[in-house]
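From the pipeline queue, job 12 of 40. The input is one protein chain; the requested action is below.

Action: predict structure.
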Amino acid sequence: MRGAPTILHLDMDAFYASAEQAAKPSLRGKPVIVGGLGPRGVVATASYEARVFGVHSAMAMAQARRLCPNAAFLIPRFALYRKVSDSVMRLLHTLSPLVEPLSLDEAFVDLEAGGTEATVEAARAVGERLRTDIRAVTGLTGSVGLAGSKMLAKIGSEQAKPDGLVIIEPGTERDLLGPMSVRTLPGVGPATAETLRRAGIHTVAETREAGEAELVRLLGRAHGTSLFLMAEGRDERPVVAERDAKSISAEDTFDVDVTDRTRVQLEIARLADRCVRRLREAGRSGRTVVIKVRRYDFSTLTRSETLRGPTDDPGVVREAAARLIDSVDTTAGVRLLGVGVSGLADYTQEDLFAQAAQAAQAAQAAQAAHEALEDAGHPPGPERPEAVGERAEEASEGAGKPRHWLPGTDVRHTEYGAGWVQGSGVGRVTVRFEEPWSRPGRVRTFAVDDPALEPSEPLPLLRPDEGTGPAPQGEAADPSPDGTADPAEGMGQGPREAEGPDGSAGAGGGPGQGQGQPVTSRP
């Protein structure tokens, strides 16, 4: 393990929710929850104002609604998040060629590989400059941890939240880790934590005191040895620039268990198309098609078929997935379906004649499937927030209007301009018209089939001509021009000011507390 703080970990603050607040002036300083909105939806991200009420990521959306009923509940907009993420990753690549993205909002950077001097002062200067650049380029904030290893750098960024910087200096690692929960260490999940708890081990210090031999006895040689080293503050994992995906997939969880066989087949065809679209976006192909089925009793099974060679042809993948689902009994009901492709390659080498025959046979079935799906009515509500965003993106790409205007969807009206959907029902859709750089806008209601209202692409968070960011998110939004401060007027969807125990907005770690937070160094 390196002693000097040459590993940087960046974690954007409440990324999805912060991006939504930056994009929607009426939501700044108010609780925002992003995720799947169906009965089986889960929270992807909650703003700091919503976290005051106990809402957190991976929580069931139904529980989040009970804890914070006045929050704005929005679908994810991954087109926007990817653009912001790309800008942040470009900034990281100016620091070093060794950047290891973990997700859209999180990454490790090896500063030593980028030529940064291995001193606390040099690391601090890089971290401060990065936070400043991120705010200037995206209008959002990120927290930075700097340490001699990946584990410690990640712990530092967690301590720095929101909008801060923490340096863990050499020689302080053991004292810092000692009182922390053993769950802090990488690789310690619920099962491992329970095994350690039964042995009387709760903290990192107790893990270290138990000794390597005892941990090996409890957890096995590989896991026990690794855990002991990390409890000692030693983490030798390098920053890896390329994290190559092993598979690409798409799946949906349904609001109501699906028992109709035709519906199952139609959903598999749609998921196969979405999977191939992802495959092509990644510039990859694959030779093994896999389906995933979670049944009514939560039992999960997979089936796979290996093709002659890698493919990115939607007809081939769709046909293989159809053959696989035919071998599964779904009459008792399924709650989740998925289609994936593994054995990835950067090229295709299929027999062209065989592929052509397969594609031709699949074309008619695909056309019939799509036509039937168009007539099937309300599509299932996905559990994963990614799937919600994908459905919205699919709708906006189509020639016609989406069946449902989901909260958070970007729209444009021929007369009123850009806005976003606050809610819909009984044939009406409510839209707030505002832009990231404007004051909170007016709320108007239209018929869901109003020809003047169209889905649109997300606006950038910063005004293109001025390059200025949105107002600080710790500030409460100004009243809208029509005097309706509540962004979901009349829809039962709108957030109100979140107040903490002291009556201040965003109490308990809200964005307002993070703005201008001094950079700290933790011994």
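Job complete. The longest strand covers residues 247-258.
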